[in-house]
Structure formats: C-alpha cells, structure tokens
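Predict both folds.
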Amino acid sequence: MYSMKVDFLIVGQGLAGSLLAHFLETQGASIFVIDPDGSGSASRRAAGLINPVTGRYFVKSWRVDELIPFARETYRTLEQQLGGSFFHERCILRALGSAKEENDWLARAGDPGYLAYMGDHTKSEHFQTLLYPTLAYGQTLQSAQLNVAIFLDFFQKQLIRKNELSKNNFNYNDLKINRAAVVYQDIEARGVIFCEGFGAIHNPFFNYLPFRGDKGEALIVKIPGADFEQIVKQNNTFIAPLGNDLYWVGATYEWHFENDTPTEKARLELLERLDTVLKMPYEVIEHWAAIRPTVKDRRPFLGQHPQFQQLWIFNGLGTKGASLAPFWAHHLSNVILEDAILDPEVDITRFNHTKQ
C-alpha cells in the first residue's frame, strides 16, 4: 500500500504549477506538488507585467482579448481565496522619444481594435522632476502587475496547510509508469504534470522539446520619494513599483549563457540604462538573474507525452507568464479532466518526438 493516493502529481510550483493546481482542485481533482525551495526560479524573479501592447510597432499581444480578462478574474479570485494582495492594475507609461513614435502611437490608438488598450498620450512635462525628458508618453490600458513572489508565497502556504507540498527535488528514476497509474516513491497517482520551467531540459521524458531559454537579469532598487503608481517604460527599461519605495528595474536578455548567476556586465548595463531614465538618486538593493523558459515560436508547451499517456507538460510561458498562465492552466485542466480538445497552437504535437 502507498502512503498517499492522489489524482495528479505536479512537479514545479512556479506560476504554471500553482495555477494548474488551483484549477485542477477547483474542478474536483486531488493534487500533490513536488518542488524544492524554488527561491531562484524564473517565476519568482519576474516582474509579473501584463502588457497588452508590445514591440516597436505597438502590436497587441497574442490572444490578448481572451487572456487579460481571464487573468484579471483569476488573480482577483485567488486574492480572495488566499487572503493576500498581489495583483495590481497599473497603466504602463511608454516613452515616445520621436515625432515618428508619437505619430505611430496615435495612429495605432485610433484603430478600433486597440481602443481598449491604448489611451491618450501625455506630454513629458508631468514627469520632469523624476525622469529625463522625452517627447511624450503613451498610456497602455488594461495593463497590470502581478507580484509573483508574493502570490507564490501565499499559494505555497495554502499547499503546506493542506499537506499538498513536498519541498524536494523530483527524482525521475523513482517514477514508475504502469498501465493505469504512476507511482512515485510512496505516492500513487493517475498522472504527473511537469511544470518545471527551464529545468525541463533535464527531464528525460520531455527534453526533446525545443526549449530555447534566455537569461534575464534585473535590479531591485530603492527610490525614496518617487511614488510611482504606474509602470514606466523608457530606453527599453521597465521601472515597476513593488511598494515601500522599491522598484523592479529590467530586464536584460541573453540567449547564450553558462549559468543563472548574476553578472557584472548585466548589472552595469542595467545601471547605465536606468541612469539615462531616472533623475532621482537610488540605491541598488538586489541583483537577480534567472533563465526564462522561452520557446522559438513563442507559444507555450501543453500536452501529453507521445508514449506515456499518464505524463503531461505545462511549460514554455516565456516572458509573458503572468498573462498566459491563468488561461492556459484552465485550458489544460479542462483537457485533462473534461476531455476538451487541446488547442493546436499550444499542443506539443506540433514538434516531432525525436528521442525518448
């Protein structure tokens, strides 16, 4: 006899694993999560920005009309359920540094499909005491910020309270796959869902998937008296408030890396960028680095293993995890529990299975 029997084991308690656990339990399934301390995970290092309009051409993010309302509803529900405050609706003020950028913004903002996401632009005089001047700022609407670390801490406490978390590394060699179930150490389950982020490159069942991964570094700085209530993007740098005069500043992108250790090169780059934006004095409190689980086609990885139907994956959320994770966690929960059809845009069958 096994000491525990559950419907699903979830490996990883980042954004993907936590939200999937939430929806599986909401739909009546029992779960158990296996995750080490996770303090350095990409989820916890992320700014948690939900940004509906991105890029130099001010284009709506993929499926944003579905993703943002669902994310907002999910995080508000979880705040009530967990008794915490971690979701903040905040306008993003995007610097428009030239007449062309300002004209492009105004033209896009006049498109009926963008009216809900792009507000009137404002001249930079409003921010001259805080920021170095630019021509104008465009206001991105329906943007938000999830304090990912606080959310994950609250969710982790709930898992611990319900005896649903093991803070240990997952040992793939201990997983036994039977015809109707899986056994992991002393736990029997219907299946295992891997939500490991970039760590999935070491997963012998799913490492055939084309994880690209990119290393990102960011600073936590203290800016006394700034009192930014909105998120600022200027000189390719985000300044996002965390409370108590603390701000997330970032980020860098590096596709060729040796490890997830913060580097002096990235620190200097971030400081140089910040110094071209911020007039006020600041103090660097922390320097973070993590590897994002990015995918070449910028679509998440969802689906079953081609040989072992008891094994699933939910991964590849990349740089937009805060907006992507709720919708696709709910979708995968419906696929697993309700036999819903997996959306082909995220189905891992779009890639060939080349090795076990």
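Second protein follows, with its predicted structure tokens after the sequence.
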Amino acid sequence: MAVDKVYSDATSALEGLLHEGMTIMSGGFGLCGIPAVLIDAIRQSGVKDLTVISNNAGVDDCGLGLLLHTRQIRKMISSYVGENATFARQYLAGELEIEFNPQGTLAERIRAGGAGVPAFYTPTGVGTQVAEGKEVREFDGRKYVMERGLFADLALVHAWKGDTEGNLVYRKTARNFNPIMATAAKVTVAEVEILCEPGEIEADHIHTPGVYVKRIVPLLQVHKRIEQRTVRKWQAQPA
C-alpha cells in the first residue's frame, strides 16, 4: 500500500517528530537552499534544547537565526557563522555551545553518517584546536585526526522539485548540503517548490531518492533572501 508523504503545511509535517534535546540537520549554504518554512514551524513549536547541524546559522532575522533569537538552540555543529550577530553574542556570553568544523570535514562527517560509517581519518585540522581531544594516527608518514560521522534525529531539506513519492531535485547552488543531510537522519522532511506526480522527474535527474524522504511540504510561495548583494557602483554613461 502506498504511503501518503505529502502534508498540507510545515506544522503538520513536523507533528510527532519534535522533542526537547533532539538533534536536527538543516540544509543550505548561507541563505541558499535553506528549509526556511520548516525552520519557522520549529520556531512556532517552541521546542528547545536543540542541537543543530548546519553549515552556518543563517542571519539574525532569517533561517536558523530565528531559533537562536528564541533561544531554542543549545548547541551548533557548524563551519561558518560569521553573518549572525545573535550567534556571536550568545557564544561569547557562554549561552551557546559550538562545535566548529572545517567545511569539508563537516560535509564528510554528514556523508559518512548517512553511509553508516562511524568515523574516518582526515589530515585537516591536525595540530590545531580542531584536533584537541581527538585521536590522531599516522598513516604513511602523515598524521590524521579521527572525526566521527554525524547522524540526526531529523533532517530538514529544501528542494526545487519533488514528486509525491519523495524523489527530489535541487537547483544549482541550493544543492549544497541538502542531498547528504537527507540521508543522515532517522526522518527526513523536505519542503519543495514544485510538487509533481511520480514519473514526471527523469530517473537520471533525481538527486535524493524517495526512500530517504518520509514527509513532503509543497510550498505555496517561495521567498528567497539574498545574504550579501554585491553590485557595481552606478556610473553615468557618456552621451
């Protein structure tokens, strides 16, 4: 019997999945490809004491920055958090725990968790604070630090297109951390810009197979923020 994975809104899609102290993966890079609607539903739920795995922490008034503002996040496992003043303020005040990762290491920890690999060795971070408290071994004359794979209770991803069976396609840069996070959690919930019927997505175009996705939220409208807008200064053209 086919399982209906489609939910009318983010709140209903997260029903029964949220609990205090859980670990959540949140896709995206900067504000590109973030599951903004699902994040807002978590904010409205009020669930607290969260550990959130994400490349960054959004900005103060968007993305994971909303959960920091309401103090629902206890710990961040991240790579880059420089655009969020709330993050910096809470961290410096000792109110937020941070586990920093080199960006490639973070991506591999997530990929490894999704592949069932409990740990791996990497030369990145050897001799720095990143390696403190971790096992370091030598292979072929070079030192490597052991990093643990990451696996979450819940993964939230944003896709450009998805079918009702959960097969997902990400668009360009928004592909980023979403595909690997979709594989590395007990339950994956996806918000999609375009929802279609099975068979409408060419098999070779699928980035995340539907077997990984348990629930889907079709978005009625999509608002995409630009984190940093860089433009040339306007110059009058000669007549």
